[in-house]
Inverse folding.
């Protein structure tokens, strides 16, 4: 079986669903269920004995070690993290706690478990750390995309905390020989994406008749990858990645934020036309920029393609159409994630930001 941390979040839940759709190997899903964790994402697995959910915190090394000793996984896939850049600007503490201290506790528990395994299981074991392209910092318009050897230059508390966790993982391989793998991926989108992030936020606000808040001039560039392609890349790296290596994962799909928002508006104009016949583009509102906002990310994913044969299956056009359709088809999921503390977050992040 495999042990997944953060498997109730956006990418983690897509990964667990995809994993169990492809194979019968059971999953122990360990998640704290913060605001971003949602068991509704896994509702289709309710009766599935191959999926076991345990609520817990990766900072609790004793609980993690007890579970590892009880279930004896052959691999750990580590998604659990605080993941939203804007929240890291408002309150970095939880990012330091979960992303750095939590990864450290998880590594320590893993080391204790792994060290005591018989030799054959020890060499077959894998710790796969899921990380981000944001650790590499920001690119100018003509710079080459990030490769696995690009120097780290994280610019937000989020990316700095992920960079620290990457370094810890690297050190556990070099110092203790723990068989680690690290993936650094670009921006994901798709089903179950929490509507604090650009794409789901725009879909939700458009339908609610609210402003579509574009930070600064909207010309910041991101590389977008459909989430199931990221999941496939992780499965492939887990299966055949070289121990101790880093693999960049990306969609070869750079887009300026404003173009993404225009695409969403035009798609919604066709799929869910406004009653007054106008375009959702009229709701676009330029707001004050994110402090320290990285201008451009781009990923060179050639290593993953040449060594392991992975490339994205979806284009942006196909992936975004599926995504918009998914949100239109799941109003109950959306209503649920917008209850609770969501409104407070939106109010604090967008307060006093109008009129860029
Ligand atoms: P998310 O915020 O949607 O989900 C994070 C999950 O981790 C949630 O289920 C949450 O409950 C859980 N969690 C948080 N703190 C925990 C703790 N202390 N112990 C146990 N569980 C905890 O995040 P996501 O977008 O799914 O990202 C998953 C991973 O992928 C993160 O490590 C992130 O850095 C990385 N990543 C994300 C993207 C992206 O575009 N979203 C891109 C590249 C890499
Ligand atoms: O690059 C990978 C990273 O992508 C992951 O590591 C992060 O976990 C994930 O959240 C994402 O980070 P970003 O900051 O790029 O994603 P976000 O959706 O928050 O923002 C995407 C772009 O859109 C960014 O340039 C900021 C801009 N934006 C975002 C919001 C929420 C807006 O213009 N308006 C908004 O309201």
């Amino acid at each position: 079986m495999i042990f997944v941390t953060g498997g109730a979040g956006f990418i983690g839940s897509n990964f667990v669903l995809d994993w169990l759709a492809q194979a019968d190997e059971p999953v122990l899903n360990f998640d704290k269920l913060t605001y971003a964790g949602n068991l509704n994402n896994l509702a289709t697995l309710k009766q599935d004995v191959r999926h076991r959910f345990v609520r817990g915190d990766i900072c609790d090394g004793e609980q993690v070690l007890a579970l590892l000793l009880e279930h004896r996984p052959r691999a750990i896939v580590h998604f659990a993290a605080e993941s939203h850049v804007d929240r890291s600007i408002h309150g970095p503490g939880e990012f330091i706690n979960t992303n750095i201290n939590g990864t450290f506790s998880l590594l320590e528990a893993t080391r204790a478990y792994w060290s005591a395994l018989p030799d054959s299981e020890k060499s077959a074991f894998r710790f796969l750390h899921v990380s981000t392209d944001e650790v590499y910092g920001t690119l100018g318009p003509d710079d080459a995309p990030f490769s696995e050897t690009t120097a780290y230059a994280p610019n937000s508390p989020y990316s700095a905390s992920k960079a620290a966790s990457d370094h810890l993982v690297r050190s556990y391989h070099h110092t203790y020989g723990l068989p680690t793998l690290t993936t650094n991926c670009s921006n994901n989108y798709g089903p179950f994406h929490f509507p604090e992030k650009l794409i789901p936020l725009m879909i939700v606000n458009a339908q609610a008749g609210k402003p579509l808040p574009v930070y600064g001039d909207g010309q910041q560039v991101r590389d977008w990858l459909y989430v199931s392609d990221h999941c496939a890349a992780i499965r492939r790296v887990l299966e055949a990645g070289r121990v101790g290596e880093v693999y960049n994962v990306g969609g070869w799909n750079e887009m300026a934020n404003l173009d993404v928002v225009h695409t969403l508006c035009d798609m919604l104009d066709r799929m869910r036309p406004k009653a007054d016949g106008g375009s959702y583009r009229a709701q676009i509102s330029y707001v004050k920029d994110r402090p320290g906002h990285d201008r451009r990310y781009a990923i060179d994913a050639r290593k993953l393609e040449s060594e392991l044969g992975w490339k994205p299956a979806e284009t942006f056009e196909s992936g975004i159409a599926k995504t918009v359709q998914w949100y239109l088809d799941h109003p109950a999921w959306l209503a649920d994630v917008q209850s609770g503390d969501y409104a407070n977050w939106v109010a604090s992040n967008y307060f006093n930001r109008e009129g860029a």
Residues 2-192+226-254+293-313 form a domain with the Rossmann fold fold (CATH 3.40.50.720).
